[in-house]
Design brief:
15% strand, 350 residues, single chain, 61% helix, Heat Shock Protein 90, alpha+beta, 2 domains, five-stranded mixed beta sheet
Length: 350
């Protein structure tokens, strides 16, 4: 309907011109022979309406075909689509179509080259990250089996280096995973306690070195998500809490979970300086590091950005709370999932 109205407005002037000619012819006929005027007036008007309707229908059909051909050409500007469009266009329009085709094909070639370069770069980065895991595994093996050969201070330093490298590698891999076209998430029922325990084991040497008081109150809760993605998310939050927990006095991190009406909530809270009110709305922005205190000069600003991106993919809501000089708290809201026996399907509350 909208297309026909556009075509009608385009040719409305011709309809008015046709009626004007009819009016002039009718006036001359009335002057010449009033009886003939009365007999032929209806035929003249009917013929004009039929003529305009036929021309209108033909042009509407041609315009619709031209529009379809143009859309097909824009989606795939190859020679076949270009020829199909040129058949429906005038000579003047054909010159513009050929110029547009050259421009689109040039941009398409440049885009394909860029996509190839990006794909090659992503494959190289992922291959490098996976190769880096081999020496990391060897370092872990040495620390586990020959820790007595190192002093306690040296052992803590090696653990710290290993954890930081592992964290950076994981960030790189999950960044590539988040930006990829295909995402191999496996959603299943995950024990939140086990996921937290797994992350705490990796950060245990760092927690001991900083003498962090860890308070953990997590009841038995099953959440529905991808376990690898959840582990990565928890690693980012715990790393952030350890990094910015209070350094001048006893550092303290609290991990608590509770069941609410529509979701399960996990809280990760530290007793550090927190985030200033002016910075709080931007902490999830890519590259944002806030003020330059508390070691943020060396921060990359990628941890919470990747955490929020991963949470979005896993349908987990993230909420940050902080009061300056009174700590920082990150909340994860996991939607509840209910099983439906008959259809064996899952429904998720939001």
């Amino acid at each position: 309907m909208g297309h026909n109205w556009k075509v009608f407005k385009r040719y409305a002037l011709w309809l008015l011109l046709l009626f004007g000619i009819d009016a002039m012819a009718a006036a001359l006929l009335w002057i010449a022979d009033i009886q003939a005027f009365q007999a032929m007036l209806g035929s003249i008007i009917l013929a004009s309406v039929v003529l305009f309707a036929g021309v209108f229908a033909l042009n509407s059909y041609r315009d619709r075909k031209k529009e379809e051909a143009f859309c097909a050409f824009l989606n795939n500007p190859d020679e076949f689509q270009e020829e199909n469009l040129l058949k429906l266009c005038s000579e003047a329009e054909g010159d513009m179509i050929r110029l547009l085709a050259q421009t689109l094909q040039s941009r398409e070639n440049e885009t394909q080259k860029l996509l190839t370069r990006v794909s090659d770069y992503e494959e190289y980065v992922e291959a490098w990250a996976h190769e880096t895991k081999t020496p990391l595994s060897l370092l872990t093996l040495l620390l586990d089996n020959h820790r007595e050969d190192f002093s306690e201070t040296m052992g803590f330093k090696l653990d710290f280096v290993r954890n930081r490298i592992q964290e950076s590698v994981n960030q790189m891999l999950f960044y590539a995973r988040l930006k990829g076209v295909k995402k191999d998430y496996l959603f299943e029922s995950v024990d939140l306690n086990e996921a937290v325990e797994e992350v705490l084991e990796d950060y245990q040497p760092l927690l001991e070195e900083k003498q962090v008081i860890l308070v953990r109150r997590i009841p038995e809760i099953q959440v529905y998500c991808d376990k690898r993605g959840l582990t990565f998310l928890l690693c980012q939050l715990l790393s952030n809490a350890v990094k910015y927990s209070k350094a001048d006095t006893q550092a303290r991190i609290e991990l608590t979970a509770a069941e609410e009406e529509k979701w399960y909530t996990l809280s990760v809270r530290d007793n550090g300086r927190g985030v200033q009110p002016c910075d709080l709305p931007y902490i999830f922005e890519k590259g944002f590091t806030g003020d330059s205190q508390d070691g943020r000069r060396k921060a990359t600003g990628m941890g919470l950005y990747l955490a929020r991106a991963m949470a979005g993919d896993l349908n987990i809501s993230m909420e940050a709370r902080s009061q300056w000089m009174q700590g920082f708290e990150m909340l994860l809201h996991f939607p509840k999932v209910h099983k439906q026996e008959k259809g064996h399907s899952l429904s998720m509350e939001k």
